[in-house]
Design a protein that fits this description.
This protein is an alpha/beta fold. The protein has helices at 6-11, 15-26, 30-39, 59-72, 86-89, 91-102, 123-136, 151-158, 173-179, 199-210, 235-248, 253-281, 286-295, 301-313, 323-329; strands at 47-53, 77-83, 109-115, 141-147, 162-167, 188-191, 224-226. The chain is globular and about 65 Å long. It starts with 5 loop residues before the first helix and ends in a 5-residue tail after the last helix. The model is unreliable at 86-92 and 323-334 (pLDDT under 50). The structure holds guanosine-5'-triphosphate (GTP) and magnesium ion (MG).
Length: 334
Amino acid sequence: MTAPTLSERVLAGDPRAIARAISLIEDEAAAGAELIRRIFNRTGRAYLIGVTGPPGAGKSTLVDRMTAELRKTSRTVGVVAVDPTSSYTGGAILGDRVRMQAHAGDDGVFIRSMATRGHLGGLARATGEAAMVLDAAGKDIVIIETVGVGQDEVDIVRTADVSIVTIVPGTGDEVQALKAGIMEIADIFVVNKADREGADRTAMSIEAMLTLHTFADGDWRPPIMKTEATSGRGVPDLLDMIEKFRQHTAATQGSRRRARAEWRLRELLGHRFLQHVEKNVLKAGEFETVLDRIAARETDPYSAVDAIFNRAVAGERADGIHDERVVATNTPKK
Ligand SMILES: Nc1nc2c(ncn2[C@@H]2O[C@H](COP(=O)(O)OP(=O)(O)OP(=O)(O)O)[C@@H](O)[C@H]2O)c(=O)[nH]1
Ligand SMILES: [Mg+2]
């Protein structure tokens, strides 16, 4: 008998294989792409929960509580946490260890942090694929935790089956600050640290913001939940609300997943095309030369892209024979 392959072990739910698979994805290894190919038809079963919010809002604490609560009903849970600190301090790994201890010896839980930096092909891609691995490994629920600061993070959470935006009580500025971008993606708002002064006021300012929106009959109106992640208060209610959302959107879940697939396909295609151009079409140093020419106003970005694009679709290689023609098209018309 031959030893099971990595993808077979992932599909069997082997934690070491899951860890290895996610590392391959993080490293942008060709083996990572191959793995996704092999497991893809076994994905799509897990329910994806995105959790975002400002740094220190208590997202990780909340996700841990949610995980513990979900385990009470025997549902298996995978967590992918995008950790902004890890690339500098290795904090993600330490954080992982601490968090894993809470679920130590529980095969039904897998927690993994990913660094925010160093993903050539995009953080969202890597995170999405890590979630796919956990999905294929049989986790019922996959939670993705991100710090809601950049477009990458928003993209990650937007494409989950349900998006949760966490906010902490404060001066009210935080709601203002989150307004742009993140607020629109919330299916459920969570005011965490509800033990703190001002939780009701924060909830009210979110409510005030929601009243500016018109919701049609049958539309989901994002509810505002209060939690205290450290004690776990409010977490069962939050999970009930997620379940309610899941039922409410059962009919439209497919279109959301289709949007996720579309976004992914476009990203991969763009990434692959750029890779091809850089590796096979442009000669060594040519990219820099084009940049210099743009800087010197000898050409413009559109003409430069036209020239490169035409060469790429003509199947020209860096060692090809059509160089004269390209130089000609790359020269601006006077
Ligand atoms: N008082 C209070 N503190 C909390 C609550 N939830 C979390 N905290 C504390 O807030 C701090 C940050 O919690 P984390 O769970 O690490 O927050 P996070 O949002 O994951 O942080 P980043 O991932 O670094 O953005 C920790 O010291 C928690 O103990 C809460 O409900 N009440
Ligand atoms: Mg965290």
